[in-house]
């Protein structure tokens, strides 16, 4: 994953934010919408693209495009920075590969303890039986 190339591939669009804001809200486009086409990206290799398709497929459109929006702040610059941070956090989650679990076997001491416990329990049950004359 090449961050510099990815940042160049991002497309931003500023639109009017919804919600309260008084007279100022109709004049300023402070909401920032980020769009990123995973399929056409040159900053990701094919393995990373398949991982993204698998892990964040619910966030992608039919055209394999990721769309994120931010309207937390009244400042367009702050919203742009926040949406870029969210984008890279989402990529980190999408590219995460869990460690493969290695099967382990019980130690010799634990096997011995288990057998001793089973033997004790069996002897206890034997003592409960009616005597066989």
Automatic annotation (TrEMBL):
The EC number(s) this enzyme carries: 3.1.1.29
Coiled coil region boundaries: none
Segments of skewed composition (Basic residues): 110-133
Keywords, alphabetical: Hydrolase
Domain of life of the native organism: Bacteria
InterPro entries in the cross-refs: Pep_chain_release_fac_I, Pep_chain_release_fac_I_sf
PROSITE patterns named in the record: RF_PROK_I
Domain Prokaryotic-type class I peptide chain release factors: 16-32
Pfam families listed in its UniProt record: RF-1
The keyword Hydrolase is annotated on this UniProt entry: yes
Secretion signal, residue range per the UniProt entry: none
Molecular function via GO: peptidyl-tRNA hydrolase activity
Ranges for region Disordered: 105-133
Protein family according to the UniProt entry: Belongs to the prokaryotic/mitochondrial release factor family.
Name used for this protein in its record: Aminoacyl-tRNA hydrolase
Organism (species): Flammeovirga kamogawensis
Gene, per the UniProt record: arfB
């Amino acid at each position: 994953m090449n961050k510099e190339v990815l940042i160049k591939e991002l497309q931003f669009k500023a639109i009017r934010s919804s919600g309260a804001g008084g007279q100022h809200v109709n004049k300023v486009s402070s909401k920032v919408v980020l769009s990123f086409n995973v399929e056409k990206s040159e900053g990701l290799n094919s393995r990373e693209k398949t991982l993204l398709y698998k892990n964040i497929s619910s966030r992608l459109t039919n055209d394999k495009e990721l769309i994120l929006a931010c309207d937390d702040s009244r400042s367009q610059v702050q919203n742009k920075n926040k949406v870029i941070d969210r984008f890279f956090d989402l990529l980190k989650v999408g590219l995460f590969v869990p460690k493969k679990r290695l099967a382990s076997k019980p130690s010799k001491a634990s096997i011995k303890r288990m057998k001793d416990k089973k033997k004790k329990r069996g002897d206890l049950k034997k003592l409960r039986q009616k005597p066989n004359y």
